[in-house]
Amino acid sequence: MSKDNIIKLIQPGNVEDQLTEILRNGARALLAQAVEAEVADFLGKHADLKTADGHQRVVRHGHLPEREVMTGIGPVAVRQPRVRDREADVTCPDRIRFSPSILPPYMRRSKSMETLLPILYLKGISTGDFSEALAALLGKDAAGLSASAIGRLKDGWLDEHTAWQRRDLSAKRYVYIWADGIHLQARLEDEKQCILVLIGATSEGRKELVGFTDGARESAQDWRDLLLELKRRGLDVPPRLAIADGALGFWKAAGEIWPKTREQRCWVHKTANVLAKLPKSQQPKAKRALQEIWMAETKAAAELASDAFIESYTPKYQKAADCLSKDRDTLLAFYDFPAEHWKHLRTTDPIESTFATVRHRTIRSKGCLSNRTALAMVFKLLEAAQKSWRRLDGHNQLPKLVLGVTFNDGIEVIAKPTDRQPITAAA
Q: Which of 91, 285, 295, 311 has the fewest CB atoms within 10 Å distance of its CB?
């Protein structure tokens, strides 16, 4: 987005209009009600506490000075109520403190703004143009975000990303790992125009961003560097299963660093690869046939469906049949894991869906970011997205995998008790 394009956004009535002012006033009133309700709830929880002379111990104590919070509809003014504990002085360890969650003490911008700023930076907005860009998007009052303020924000993001890259991973254990190389078309400074991403599932079923860096999608060396860096920081236990596209250099690196980790090829990528080797007239039917493979109830049924596809398409479309058959074992690895997890394991969707909006919001421009800055911006976007990631279905099955329990066609294999030897009488 160039400066000229920013100017074009500023049309009469767009910067400041009656509807925006009504929305802002409504937001101000709702926010005030919300913070008052939060204080009332806190006071209600401590209503039974009394001072030595019988008075209410926890009481209201006026308001903090008014401050503005930058939101998606512009700045909204609010005053945070204060709470006082009459029974304790500031040095007392038992002092009851009110910690607001709706409006934390140092909050100056909403979460939507925290996401908007790195997006604009990746779009090509220079630090000096942020005030003008935000004024076009949010109203003239947003111009308070000066170049120096944006610069401080950017420095903070760089520090946060650096700290995250150095975090200790010795206590982490990921049962599953999804890997993919995402082309964001952000303004990186050299030939490494791909973001290498790893997302893991913990034994509690929660998805976490494990690692990401810049690199080349097909470069085994770049993937190896990323995996070795994670290992150096304490990630010693390999995942039980890794899910990725078959074209990645990731598999060569993972085979060296995690030799015991099972491989699962992504069915979305494989379907696209097979269909690309067929004429358009054949693609709808072939897609349904491929779906019958990965939707089969058992591995044996999936193998039969795979055999049928290969037999049907080999005579005229040998390349399509070969594309499917060469990865057959790794395409069906998910059958050896809990059935509740199958929909999570058949594709790299956890990565694809996360980056979908980010990818569409980043474009290549004439300017260029340093790779370190671009990665810090992407990190902020991922940090925001991670908060909405869903927990895996059937998360109660994950500890069984950690303990080495085996599954067949998605069902736990119950080990038979060993036959006891009969006790013979002493001679």
A: 91
